[in-house]
């Protein structure tokens, strides 16, 4: 069996622009930015784009769990996840003429970029829709 492709996941951990309320930020990100970004990203070869909304009332639900295991709750307002074959795919998207005209100004409106953090890695899914996946003969399908 061939090893499964390990697509890269680039995660941007963002704080909202402090001039926006939590409600204004969440609404704009979902209702304005997502429709605008989706076509641009797909056209430029991005495999996946996910918005992970973490307004204070939701992320604080993890406080008890975090305290129990000796952790802290991550303070970010938003996580953006891109699935790509390689990092150059995202660079290609930012080279698109639409980026500086439409995307970048909207990002500057929404986010406090000076505080953004980034991660890059790959995803191995082993439980999906409540079922075990990608385990073949007791081994990970990603390493076979």
TrEMBL record:
Molecular function terms from GO: oxidoreductase activity
Chain ranges of the EthD domain: 17-113
Pfam families reported in the protein's UniProt record: EthD
Family: Belongs to the tpcK family.
Protein name, entry field: EthD domain-containing protein
């Amino acid at each position: 069996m061939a090893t499964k492709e390990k697509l890269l996941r680039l995660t941007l951990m963002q704080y909202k622009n402090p001039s926006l309320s939590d409600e204004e930020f969440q609404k704009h990100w979902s209702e304005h930015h997502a429709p605008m970004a989706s076509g641009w990203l797909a056209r430029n070869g991005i495999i996946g784009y996910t918005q992970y909304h973490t307004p204070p009332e939701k992320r604080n639900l993890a406080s008890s769990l975090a305290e129990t295991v000796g952790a802290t709750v991550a303070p970010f307002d938003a996580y953006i996840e891109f699935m790509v074959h390689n990092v150059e795919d995202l660079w290609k998207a930012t080279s698109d003429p639409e980026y500086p005209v439409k995307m970048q100004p909207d990002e500057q409106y929404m986010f406090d970029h000076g505080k953004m953090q980034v991660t890059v890695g790959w995803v191995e899914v082993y439980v999906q829709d409540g079922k075990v996946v990608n385990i073949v003969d007791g081994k990970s399908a990603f390493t076979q």
